[in-house]
Amino acid sequence: MATGLLALLDDVAALVKVSAASLDDVPAQVAKTTGKVSGIVIDDTAVTPKYVVGLDPARELSIIFQIAKRSLINKVLLLSPAALILGFFAPWAIPPILMLGGAYLCFEGYEKVHSMFAPHHDPAGETQNLEVITPEELEKERISGAIRTDLILSAEIVAITYATVAETNLLNQIVVMFAVAIFITVAVYGFVGLIVKADDVGVHLAKKNSPALQRFGRGIVNFMPHFLKILGYVGTAAMLWVGAEIIAHGIPFTSHLLHDIELALAHIPALAWFAKAFACFLGGLVIGFFIEKLVVLAKKLFKKKA
């Protein structure tokens, strides 16, 4: 009896040692995964500020907090467990799900590009059908849109994280995935908060007694509207780029094509990155165009049936 108990304790001790050794690698694995998803993190950071442009400045941090909270909940309680379960029982299901998310990003990005360049009509009688929306409803609509977009980007982050730790033990997978989810969410939305409140910092500095600080503060205030506008364009381009890249990696031919582009320009890393991103951006526009046409056709058919 005593011998059996000692053997059991030895096994437990060995298991604890293995787990501790594995957990020692967690910081390195978190750093490695964060590097791999840095492109998506940049996209997420660029996309989010446009959802608070035009809203009450006093509500900006509250809106960002609501988006960040939901993003963290989605990563920790929905996407990470789903990735672990699918990775164990049905790993083949992850790529198609991600490709559907990529298609949604392409569709949303194309709609924004189309709205930028399409002529805006206001035929007689159309103004009578315009829907009046309150600031509160607009805020809810913006938050919902931001959460939908973040869910797609978060799913890609979680999928890449899982792929990085898929060969490790279950405890290590859980710890790394949760650590990456928390770290990236705090980093992204903390930086977004700084971006959207930078103009307030500028106003504060402009009221100081120092002429240098006053000039710097006014410079921030004058620069931020242009910066946010540019960031909005970057966010739209990022939707198309990331959406198309997700789809491309799910198709062997296009995945190899992107890899060939990188290899051909490997001697100039910056040019290789730009060529790949630009190819994905154009591909995202094409994909979004066809999806938009399918959506319009489906709406027409649905109306006829109704």
Explain this structure:
There is one protein chain. The protein is mostly helical and 306 residues long. The protein has one domain. The chain is built from 11 helices and no strands. α4 runs parallel beside α6 and α5 packs antiparallel against α6. It is globular, with a radius of gyration of 24 Å. The N and C termini lie far apart (75 Å). About 8% of the residues have low confidence.
Keyword list:
globular, 306 residues, single chain, mainly alpha
Task: Set down the secondary structure blueprint.
Elements: H1 2-24, H2 26-36, H3 38-47, H4 60-89, H5 94-117, H6 135-165, H7 170-196, H8 198-206, H9 211-249, H10 252-264, H11 269-305
Helix pairs in contact: 2-6, 2-7, 3-6, 3-7, 3-9, 4-6, 4-7, 5-6, 5-9, 5-11, 6-7, 8-9, 9-11, 10-11
Task: Describe the structure concisely.
The protein is built from eleven helices and no strands.
Give unreliable regions as ranges.
Answer: 4-22, 123-127
Overall 3D shape: globular
Radius of gyration: 24 Å
Percentage of residues in DSSP E strands: under 5%
The helix-and-strand class reads mainly alpha
Termini Cα gap? 75 Å
The overall pLDDT, averaged over residues, is 80
SSE string, helices as H and strands as E: HHHHHHHHHHH
How many separate domains make up the residues? 1
Q: Report the major sheet.
A: none
